[in-house]
Amino acid sequence: MTDEPATTTDVTGTERAATGATPEDGDVTGAQVAGTAGPDDGTSRSGDGAAGGDDVLVTVEGLEVHFPIKRGIVLERTVGYVYAVDGVDLTIRRGETYGLVGESGCGKTTLGRGLLRLVEPTGGRVVFDDIDVSTLKGERLRKSRRRMQMIFQDPLSSLDPRQSVESILIEGMRAHGLDSGKESTRARLVELLDSVGLPESALHKYPHEFSGGQRQRIGIARALAVEPDLIVADEPVSALDVSVQAQVLNLLEELQQRLGLTYLVIAHDLAVVRHISDRIGVMYLGSLVEEASSDEMYAEPMHPYTKALLSAVPVPDPTVEDEREQILLTGDLPSPANPPTGCRFHTRCPWKQETLCDTDRPQLRDVGGGHRVACHYAEDILAGRITSHEVEPELVHPDS
Ligand SMILES: Nc1ncnc2c1ncn2[C@@H]1O[C@H](COP(=O)(O)OP(=O)(O)O)[C@@H](O)[C@H]1O
Ligand code: SF4
Ligand SMILES: [Mg+2]
């Protein structure tokens, strides 16, 4: 669980434009990155939300990551758990982009890290390309890691400030035996930089010499260097200026189509995932509450939490904006160390009913066409048989 790159606390973060700097735009004209080109298996957003057919690359079953809460100085004892990820089932199809959204603290990053075994899951399993990676150890685990890479939110803290771009890129290649000789490695590095829109001259520069967007391009090149199949991008654009965000997202899309990559894109911003996702999963307090194709999720959200999240996203059309229903969530996100009983959303749900909601935890169930919802009353809410009401803010108990 320690594959995470060194952090850069000793860097001031002053942004200097690289001399001869590349434009921040997404006009990437680079040559194809060798070795990883996949077939054009439906990686473009087709509108129906399904990409790559049903060819599943990743299956997550009942995944749990519970962090122990320790107390005591001499005799440390576990006094409870943070249920960061608490029973997640999902599949990611080959060539698709699966967007994962939810409020900060709901477990998105931990799910991404658990999937790659950068943090050890405490339950469930992850099957990657028919291999159960939950049980892999040593060399086989290391090999499987090459095929699954992560892009981090803050490129400045995920790139070692003491390493040049060249050594950042070579590090991973070397670890996986992909630096085949001086000449060909050099050509490969240039090709990698080109594919993310950076010039050869970037090789001998250091992370602080680049702008935020350029640094994220380096982070992407580092991930691509080991020729992965799956990229988990954890809030890949949230640290970037709005003007640069679209360029980096366009680059990710273009690389996906060119290389046949599969993405899990994590974001708290629904606008980001909508643009690039085929399917979207909404997370609340450690588990998925809804999953649907991107179009369907936006056209007909069924879970009250998704409805509330979407109602907070501004709509460009002023008439629609004025008329649409706004759902304000009252009450704080409860602590994942002490999640509410029954439906975890019941303390904030404007549709909460007298029965089931605070006693029975709803399962994520298919309500038709692969649209999955974890709400006892999803159909009744959709049909208007039950309506929303005021929510009395409930006292959320402290952690322990
Ligand atoms: N290493 C850890 N030890 C203890 N708790 C953790 C650890 N990492 C994350 N958490 C907790 O798990 C919960 C989910 O965190 P995280 O996965 O980072 O959420 P998100 O990415 O959705 O913001 C949070 O309450 C967070 O404080
Ligand atoms: S199960 Fe009940 S509390 Fe949970 S989302 Fe549905 S209506 Fe709301
Ligand atoms: Mg996170």
Automatic annotation (TrEMBL):
Sorted UniProt keywords: ATP-binding, Nucleotide-binding, Transport
UniProt cross-references to InterPro entries, sorted A to Z: AAA+_ATPase (IPR003593), ABC_transp_ATP-bind (IPR050319), ABC_transporter-like_ATP-bd (IPR003439), ABC_transporter-like_CS (IPR017871), Oligopep_ABC_C (IPR013563), P-loop_NTPase (IPR027417)
Any GO BP annotation: transmembrane transport
SUPFAM superfamilies assigned to the protein according to its UniProt record, in alphabetical order: P-loop containing nucleoside triphosphate hydrolases (SSF52540)
Gene Ontology molecular function, alphabetical: ATP binding; ATP hydrolysis activity
CDD domains linked to this entry: ABC_NikE_OppD_transporters
Keyword Nucleotide-binding: yes
Domain ABC transporter: 69-310
Disordered as annotated region, ranges: 1-50
Family matches, as Pfam families: ABC_tran, oligo_HPY
Ranges annotated as spanning the membrane: none
SMART domains: AAA
Composition bias type Polar residues, residue spans: 1-12
Family membership noted in the UniProt record: Belongs to the ABC transporter superfamily.
Record PANTHER family: D,D-DIPEPTIDE TRANSPORT ATP-BINDING PROTEIN DDPF-RELATED (PTHR43776:SF7), TRANSPORT ATP-BINDING PROTEIN (PTHR43776)
Official protein name in the record: Peptide/nickel transport system ATP-binding protein
Species of origin: Prauserella sediminis
Lineage: Bacteria, Bacillati, Actinomycetota, Actinomycetes, Pseudonocardiales
